[in-house]
Amino acid sequence: MTEPALAPAPSADTLLEALRARLGAAHVLTAPSDLDPYLVESRKLYRGSALAAVRPGSTEEVAFVVEACAAAGVAVVAQGGNTGLVGGGVPHGGVVLSLARMNRIVSLDPVNASIVVEAGAILADVQDAADAAGLLFPLSYASRGSARIGGALACNSGGIAVLAYGNARDLVLGLEVVLADGRVWNGLKALRKNNAGYDLKHLFVGSEGTLGIITMAVLKLFPKPASRTVGFVGLPSVRVALDLFARLRKRADRDLTAFEFIPPVGLDMVLRHMPGTVRPLAGAHGAYALIELASARPDADTRAELEAALSDAIEDGLVEDATLGASEAQNLGLWALREHLSDAQGYEGGSIKHDVSVPLSRLADFVEQASAACEAAMPGLRVCAFGHVGDGNMHFNLSQPVGMDKAAFLGAWADFNRIVHDIVTAMDGSIAAEHGVGLIKRDELQHYGDPVALDLMRAIKAGLDPQDRLNPGKVVALSSDPQPALP
């Protein structure tokens, strides 16, 4: 008996006609000038291509797009604010699915301390909605004015408050997700205890859009701090910075909400290039730290608490100099010195970036060993290592030697990956701390990843997306001919 012939997949033109009919022509972009913003990631290391960029306005429309693309054999790459740093949102053919129109704050429950938002909600807007209710959504980083919640969750973003509140994964109660075949999983439960089977939401948080497309989320809120103080200190070295952190963690406990390390070369770059920044301390120091204490207790006095702790540290020789913000404007000014670090590096030429983590007890060893190894490999190289000391995450960035050709410097990216990532791996760390794997670290994950873990990842990908249509070639590649990883 002859098998019935399979119906041919719809053509690209047929797919676009169907998408326009459902979403409206204004939300199916095909002109090169309209597509261009969706093809380049924020660091401009990659430029992709796409059949179209579509802008659905609801979960039902997202599901329609995914199902139609699946039937046509066309890949779908979801984008939020397109602020990622590892090339994870760059399309290589197929359709870009922008969640920017799905930006509603759906509801807020002050008693349950939770908020329901669409995936396209801008991070700063979620923070503002919580603040208006007298609560706090603590996830925060420099791109909060353009980053969107769906992308933050898909990449398991970290940021400046992980020490106190955890990564994005720790702030999620429930999700709604469109699967690769267009079905919708509704896991929007605002529960802090739910052991009814596998905790499916954690499959999708951190999956970078390769397993499903997050369309809505229930997020945890916290009491709004009643007292907040920011300090900036000068220290002899990164090793002493760790000693100070350990002392403050013991003394301030949960009031210690941030402890950020800043190297002298990074501070100088910020002061040189970023308008409005002011040198916080009179002298020069071997290392700097930005410290924040915050408490929701009505009787809390974090300024007095931090002043006393730093005074003792100065007497004991750990801290060489310190200043505290006397107003919210001064607090923001001190934070700007940290948040502008990545942007300031761009004015100094090429920058090879590594987002890594090691056990906190090895962090000083890592910075010292990796710095020495990289400087030996390229004389004149400027190591700009900064980051979240409190959670062991260091942005180990390398700025090109003064006067060197930028392209020649960036051509050494793979060599420096091997130097830095070998040291990280030897210290039982991670080559992808908070930015994710995306495209730029996909091959590094293959090189350093545990074979069993990689097999499990591929099995999960194949189980949820057997046709490899969702953000193909990212994180783990099922294709035998994946896109190149390095820029």
Task: Write structural notes for this entry.
The protein has 487 residues and is an alpha+beta fold. Among the domains are: 119 residues, Uridine Diphospho-n-acetylenolpyruvylglucosamine Reductase, domain 3 (2-Layer Sandwich), CATH 3.30.465.10; 116 residues, Alpha-Beta Plaits. The protein contains 17 helices and 19 strands. Strand 18 and strand 19 form a beta hairpin. The radius of gyration is 23 Å and the shape is globular. It starts with 11 loop residues before the first helix and ends in a 23-residue tail after the last helix.
Concise synopsis of the structure shown:
The chain has 487 residues and is of the alpha+beta class.
SSE map:
Elements: H1 12-23, E1 28-29, H2 32-35, E2 52-54, H3 59-72, E3 76-79, E4 95-98, E5 105-109, E6 114-118, H4 123-132, E7 135-136, H5 149-154, H6 162-165, E8 172-178, E9 184-187, H7 201-204, E10 213-220, E11 222-223, E12 227-235, H8 238-252, E13 256-262, H9 264-273, E14 287-295, H10 302-315, E15 321-324, H11 328-339, H12 341-346, E16 351-352, E17 355-357, H13 363-377, E18 382-388, E19 393-399, H14 406-410, H15 413-426, H16 442-448, H17 451-464
Parallel strand pairs: 2-4, 3-4
Antiparallel strand pairs: 1-2, 5-6, 6-10, 7-11, 8-9, 8-10, 12-14, 12-15, 13-14, 13-18, 16-19, 17-19, 18-19
